[in-house]
Amino acid sequence: MACMQLNLAKVQTKPAEPQEVPYINDLFRKLMKPYAEQTWHDHQELEAFYKRNTLSHESSFIFRKGHVKVGFIRLEKQEDHIFLDQIHLEPIYHGQGIGSEALDAVKNIALEAQLPIKLVVLRVNPAFKLYERIGFEKQSEDDARYYMQWEAQCAL
What is the pTM assigned to this prediction? Predict the structure, then answer.
């Protein structure tokens, strides 16, 4: 992951540092809470979801505008794909094209590496429609999630 870089025009990006782990996990919980609660109604299931998704700084990039943190992305480069683990923006920065620009940058990384991008999204999360709109295809699903993939289409 150290060799992967995200260069965006709308925000500065930098690899996350250990002291930023609380920010990453707090933003994740804040933004995912409504979808997690719609998916799992049992307190133990909810806590298990949060525990499985406790994130570290490794493989994460922080988005900033000046000195203000506006979100993060977490990517893992695997042998046969790039896994888009998380992308979250503070709500006041939604609709400004930051997420779209970040996703385009990830697509460019995948193109250069000649790898598909995979992700998992909760079925109740409206981000599913965004991923479909930008070319991700549903590969499979279970009761709670869609498993999606994006592959570059060769131009003829």
Answer: 0.91
